[in-house]
Write the structure tokens for this entry.
Amino acid sequence: MIAVIQRVKRTSLYVDGSLISEIEGGLAVYLGIKAGDNEAQAEAMAKKLSALRIFEDTEGKMNRSVTDVGGQILLISQFTLLGDLSHGNRPSFSDAERPERAKILYDLVGERLAARGIIVKKGVFGADMKIQQYNDGPVSVIFEI
């Protein structure tokens, strides 16, 4: 399981021209599910996302979590994070989990975040999504479990 985590001021997600999800302040999380990932990894991902200290405190140090600042999370499924570029110029996605199983784990990460009191908005699994994002910092980190 891999996540690209970006601190944002605002993020909006559209499908077919319609607004699906939007957050004001928090994290945009692009989540890729790898073949063989499991429920324990989904739980660990949610735990990390909820506790990750990448928001500034009063001294300007990254010392606060999305929970601490009352932020929201926009959770976006993105199997392309598993693209293997080691051979040729077209990515291979053979490391990505099958869509049926990936959706279960994606939903589980969202549920576990919500259980921690975080407002979680989501994209549409498997859809062609258009995302407008106003990054904060910018701050972007990658976490793989």
Remarks:
- The mean pLDDT is 97.
- The two ends are 5 Å apart (CA to CA).
- DSSP finds two helices and seven strands in the chain.
